[in-house]
Protein 1
Amino acid sequence: MRHDHLLTAKQLSRADVETVLDRAAAFDADPGAARELHADKLLGLCFFEPSTRTKMSFETAAKRLGGDVVDMGSVESSSVKKGESLADTVRVVEGYADALVLRHPKQGAAKMASDFVDVPVLNAGDGAGHHPSQTLLDLYTIRERAGLDGISVGIVGDLKYGRTVHSLAHALTNFDVRQHFVSPESLRLPRSVRYDLHEAGAQVREHEDLDAVLPNLDVLYVTRIQRERFPDEEEYEAVAGEYRITEETLAAADDDLAVLHPLPRVDEIAPEVDDADAATYFEQAHNGVPVRMALLDLLLGEGGDRA
């Protein structure tokens, strides 16, 4: 994989994905082998929105590679609170770190930040845009459970504002995957995303009824209805709780179905599903560490030498 930054899933070819996933599998099998690969590297964390899994797994990944992190901290405790621009913030942090991980509420923020710095930028989520490192750990999890060719994937929930959905849908076009999108009419995929998927030759079907498609799925990717993305609280209330996965729901599914979720969940997956064989979302979250180790290793230069 030869990229200066990881900004969207659109930039990833099948070869890129396989390179990252293969490297992640090697780290997963022998985490200790990576201990001193990047002992002199510092990763800058710039999170303008709350995060648990993404932030902690990037920090863990850096440390397991032998490096360390410098953290901007919360917006409230940083110079952003004083009115500092994103461009100035990343220019400053660039002076302290060898790569930057950026999460920001505005779509396109990661691309803009990458124009102002000379170190790799990894987009950790930009508004309703993309979340490519999440997509790579999603693909790693899917590959481990079902393979990445000749499968059917159902994506359910917030397809309009869900950046994990947009990233995953684009990345899946690199593989022989039938994609089924399940949502209320008001949360359908944005027209621009649908256009890009069709242009890429994706096998795309849209549904409002999950029960109609569930028995044919190998993977069910569930997403949270994101209250924080809705400009209108009434719009959110109208669709909240529209789809809820329970043990009863899964009774109609294939025995080998894998249920994924980027987390956090609210009430879209019932707690009793956690004990089902299909439940894969905590394994998925844990996979963030080896996948982000692989990404950092490749973007910083394999074994410490920048490509």
Note: The chain has two domains: 9-130+288-304, 132-285.
Protein 2
Amino acid sequence: MTITNQQVAERAFLQQLYADEYYPDHVLDKGCAILRALCARIEAERPADLAALYVLTGAATEEFNLLEAEFEAAGSEIETVAREEIAEDFWFVASAYGFADADAEELISTREW
């Protein structure tokens, strides 16, 4: 599905992490795909309220949980810098779709990193 929200379509997700060699690009690419899939799902399902949005972001966060093993296998991890960058991108997505009042911690409440 093509993302129709122009602000989201132009976003370079996880940009700070790509700039740091500690984070493997092939794993970051999977993280970006998770975020883009979240955007597509938001556009398809059009959550009516924050509770519905949190269900979608929770599912995407669980996908990031699965990436932790891939980061570790590549000699990296989702540590403080990565956590903050991922959380910022989740909040950006929520804001771009009209949920600027979303709680950043609640967006990623299912995280294990």
Note: The chain has one domain: 28-107.
Protein 3
Amino acid sequence: MKSSPYAAAMRPAAVEVAPESVTKGAARGSSAYRRISLALFLAGFATFSLLYCVQPLLPYFAAEFKIGAAGSSLALSLSTGLLAIAILVAGALSERLGRRGLMFASMVLAAIFNVMAARAPDWHSLLVARAVEGFVLGGVPAVAMAYLAEEISANGLGFSMGLYVGGTAFGGMAGRVGVSYLTDYFSWRSALSTVGILDLFVAVGFVVLLPKSRNFVRNTALGGWDHFALWRKHLKHSLLPAVFAIGCLAMGVFVTVYNYAGFRLMAPPFNLSASKTGLIFSAYIFGIVASSWAGSLGDKLGRGPVLASGIFIAAIGLLATLQSSLFWVTVGIVLVTIGFFTAHSVASGWVGRLADGAKGHASSLYLLGYYLGSSFIGSVGGFFWQRSGWGAVVVFSIGLLAICLVLATILWRKSPGMAR
């Protein structure tokens, strides 16, 4: 009996390669493993530096274009929102077109649109450029997680996924800090252009380093309804929806803090300049370390306890930001960053372990929730800031983390066999 494209996609892919090939993925310590890890680190860097380079500019947008804090956040929220939608499309396309080329094209096009946003003559033109940038960038995160799940051996997946997430952390930091300094000394338009041009070079480095897929099987038989069936299958999974929700809520909290911390730090009693505020966001360095540490620790100790620990650390950090001391606000942002990247690194790696076939579709659903959290929750946080100040932002965020902790506990208890 002939099997359907849907059934074939849900089975673990059979790879026709020579016997000496490492069909189970590149082993940790091998040359291929190092090249893949470094290339995906660059992909993470480009994704977050392009997406979040506008975050420190939100107060400037509000002042120059005469809009509120929540309105200025559209420069980021539209990008992440369109990216969330594009992830589903890109994940499906990658099953036909392959992983490597799609990621490269996405990075190049997004960098070009970032330069166009820098040259936009008015607010609406800037928003259009940023929206299109987010949409074309969807090909990177949608495919990167699937590529790693296919090409890296199971015992090294946690570390390589953590390194990829570390690349996003480094990109987010470089985008925020670099843009802050360039804006102080030149202009926000020059800053955005610089990020776009830099990431064009990053894209070239990525495609040179990344080996061609060895375990990917091109699937041209899947039609539109087959993709919907695969997504539905993952959504009916007993545990995957909880992982998707954690990614959504944790990312929403993280973006909310970073979106509006700039407004708070540049206003009394802190009165920091853009460059000094940018230095606070160097907390991303701790995210780089935490993501690699968490991925590796999750491989050894189990994902459940590490995930719950990350959520708890982020909550402690939020409470610390309530202090009027710049020192404690900075410590709080550092803890929120460590907690978020710990949780995200573990959760994103867990998707590939829980998914039964069609890992690209499972990854796309996780990232759909992840970036919808960034877009929707990140903007909603602005209304709490405008109406009731930073205390309301913290209460809102703590509530979301409490939900994350409940879901993490359920995952921990119900999947003991998958905890590692």
Note: Residues 239 and 415 are 8 Å apart (CA to CA).
